[in-house]
Amino acid sequence: MNVLTRPSPFALALVAALALGACTPTVDLRGNLPTPENLAEIKPGKTTRDEVQQLLGTPSTTSTFGDESWQYISARTETKAFFKPEVKDRKVVSITFDRSGVVKDVIERGLEDGVAINSVERETPTAGKELSILEQLVGNIGKFSKDSKGNSP
């Protein structure tokens, strides 16, 4: 009895749905992006540091040197299957304060304003002799032995 059966339309639809579902990217939203309404309430020369924190919350990062500035950073990335995540959108809001703690400037930047930084591939040389694995193992024999009282020779 050799009977060939055709797959049911339900089975084909299920396989197609699973195949399409595997191609759907995973979207990750990260960071703290203030709403446009809250940003509109910040007036340079009038709004204080405390008012900014009440409106926008804690900043993602603050400046270390120079004028005090707060950055609110957010990013949206998409990951398809096992591939490297791709940044689709990035927004940075920088708020600079003067010495008295009043907003001096509000700047919004996007992904297109970013600059790629290439890392340096150099290595710092170290003083000393390059030992092989065998030299390291043989050179340590006897260095760490202790007598029965726990004293080194």
From TrEMBL:
GO BP field: Gram-negative-bacterium-type cell outer membrane assembly; protein insertion into membrane
One Gene Ontology term of the molecular function aspect: protein-macromolecule adaptor activity
Protein known as: Outer membrane protein assembly factor BamE
Keywords: Cell outer membrane, Membrane, Signal
One annotated Gene Ontology cellular component of this protein: Bam protein complex
Species for this entry: Magnetospirillum aberrantis SpK
UniProt domain Outer membrane protein assembly factor BamE: residue ranges: 31-105
Range of residues in the leader sequence: 1-21
InterPro entries named in the record: BamE, BamE-like, BamE_dom
Domain of life, source organism: Bacteria
Xref: Pfam families: BamE (PF04355)
